[in-house]
Each structure stands twice: as structure tokens, then as C-alpha cells.
Amino acid sequence: MSHGDRSTRAMHQALPPALREAVDDFAEHLSRVRNRSTHTVRAYVTDLVSLFDHAVRMGCVDLAELDLSVLRSWLARQRTTGAARTSLARRAASARAFSAWAHRAGLLSADVGAALASPRAHRELPSVLRADQAAALVDGPTRRITPTDPPPTDLPDTHGAPTNPARTGPAGEAAVPLRDRVLLELLYATGVRVSEACGLDVGDVDHGRRVIRVFGKGGRERSVPYGVPAQRALDDWLRQGRPAMVGAHSGDALLLGARGGRLNPTTARQIVGAYAEAAGLPRTSPHGLRHSAATHLLEGGADLRAVQELLGHSSLASTQIYTHVSVERLRAAYRQAHPRA
């Protein structure tokens, strides 16, 4: 098993063979059948290994012995050790997903997790930038706002390619602001996730219709429009920037890292954070730009269903949180401005 950190792998190896095999089969199901991302599979496996480790400590060494009391005891132990409500809700969901799969696969005689309750996760309102703040961030590379501490350029790209010699020359150095600009423009213009932006290929951009083809969670494909500023950034990057950074390991990747491979999401997060700090803005991440894009769309009159489609949310409930953000901003403005507030 290659999922999880070192402690999870150690606990996995210490499990009885039947439980260890169940973890591996479930991970295979999530990856190959459900088409879940590596990050999602890792999270499920980490939770499941923790559950089985607790079950073994309770004397449950066979999968058939797993019952609701074991699941509840596991969650109770997590709560006493300080797990947050969001973590408890996620772990309960992992247990229910495994139980349902194991029952369908004939490994459990009943879906013991179906009755497992979990605390409702407290959903905090996402922090968003004002429209002028978002504009200042996105325009940072154009206005030569250079981060005081530039993002590190020695992080491995997705393919771990060796350093691209062209990157060290004047043309390569001039290409970096163009890359940063198109990254920021796309994140704010489309509201895509950072993993989706880094996963874009050159062929995913439809310049004529000004839309990008995005593969989101679960491999779901959607088309997302972008505006004229993002088109200009794309044109400059593809004409002047990308050719200077392209290397043997670039493939069809739209956004490239310092080594010539596909831009790493971790580096993309550092780029956004560095430009936000350089512009004197609140601490910002790519997900913060996603929140901002959704909020600004709704405040501008966009339909909630349209925003759901743009963001790639499978449930409208995930999109509705942005209506609460807009209401809170309206209340704040009212309290500040109305004489009888």
C-alpha cells in the first residue's frame, strides 16, 4: 500500500491479513471504479486504517466482527483526543462508505455503518476578497509587483523533471511573470480548483469560444468560460512564456514549473500567497480566489444554478454557502452605513 504517511503505513502493515486486504481492495475500488483522486483515496485509507487499528485493540481481528458498537467507539475515541467536528464528520463518512462497499462485496453480512450518526460539520463562511482586492492580486505580475520572497523554484514539478536550462536564461526569467499572470487570471476568472488549473493541457483551451475544458472531482468534465483579460494573459503566455520554459517533460501541460514539467499545485499556492502578500492583501490562497469568484458572480446577479455548474459542485448545497457570504457582506455594509443599524 502506497497511500498515507509513514505512521499510517506502519499501522496498515500491523493489521491482520484479512483487514489489510480489505483496506487495499477498498482503495482499489475507490481509485479504479469510483475514479477518486489520489488525495481522496489517501484520506479514506488513513481513516480506515485508524478504524481497524482501534477495532483490533478492542479484540476485533476479523472483518465479520465489525459492528456498529466498534464504529461508535472509534468515533468516541477520536472525539476525546480532540478531533474537530469536521474531522469526525469526515471519518464517519469514510466508515459508512466502507461499510456499504463491504456489504455489497459480500464481506459484511449487513451494512453496519448505515446507522452511524456523525456530528454535523460546522461550515465557516469562506473569506473572500473585495473586487478591487482581487483585481490588485491578479494584476500583480502585470504591474511588476514582485513578491519579497519569491516562490521557490526548486520544487519538483509533477513529473520530477530535471531543471530546464532555458529557465535560467533571460527569456526563461521573463516567462515566469507571464506564467504567474495566466495562473492568477484563470483562477479568478473561472473559479477552478488549483488542481484543475494545474491539470489543464494546451488543447483544453478553446480560444474561439473563450472556454476551458476542466476535469473535476470524479473525472467529471465541464466547460468554464473566461473573459478578455484572461485571454490576453493566455495569448502572451503561449506566444512568449511557455516556449521559453518548455522542456522534454512538458508534454501538453498548459502551465509549467521551473523544471519544465507540469506546474505543481503546491507551487501554485505559494505563487498566489506571495503575490497577495506583495500587494498588501489579506492572506490568500487559490481556494480563496475560487470563493471570491463565486461570491462576485452571485453579487453581480448570476443564477445560483449557473454558479454551481461553473464551480463543478455536485450538490447545490455546496454553492448556497456563497449566498450566505453575500448576505453577511450586505449586513456589514448596513451596520456601517445605516443611521438606525
Please outline the helices and strands.
Elements: H1 6-14, H2 17-33, H3 38-57, H4 68-80, H5 85-104, H6 131-138, H7 170-190, H8 194-198, E1 205-206, E2 211-215, E3 221-225, H9 228-245, H10 265-278, H11 286-299, H12 304-311, H13 316-337
Antiparallel strand pairs: 1-2, 2-3
Helix pairs in contact: 1-3, 2-3, 3-4, 3-5, 4-5, 7-9, 7-11, 11-13, 12-13
Describe the protein.
The protein has a three-stranded antiparallel sheet. The radius of gyration is 23 Å and the shape is globular. About 5% of the residues have low confidence. The protein is mainly alpha-helical. 55% of the residues lie in helices and 4% in strands.
Q: What is the percent of helical residues?
A: 55-70%
Compressed to H and E, one letter per element, the order equals HHHHHHHHEEEHHHHH
Contiguous helical run count: 13
What name goes with the CATH superfamily of the largest domain? Intergrase catalytic core
- Write down the overall geometry: globular
Structural class: mainly alpha
Strand ordering within the main sheet: 1-2-3
N-end to C-end Cα span: 59 Å
Q: What's the CATH class label of the largest domain?
A: Mainly Alpha
Domain unit count: 2
Q: Total strand count, please?
A: 3
Radius of gyration: 23 Å
CATH architecture of the largest domain, by name, is: Orthogonal Bundle
Low-pLDDT runs: 149-154, 159-168
Biggest pleated sheet: 3 strands, antiparallel
In round numbers, the mean pLDDT is 83
Strand content: under 5%
Q: Kindly identify the CATH topology of the largest domain.
A: hpI Integrase, Chain A
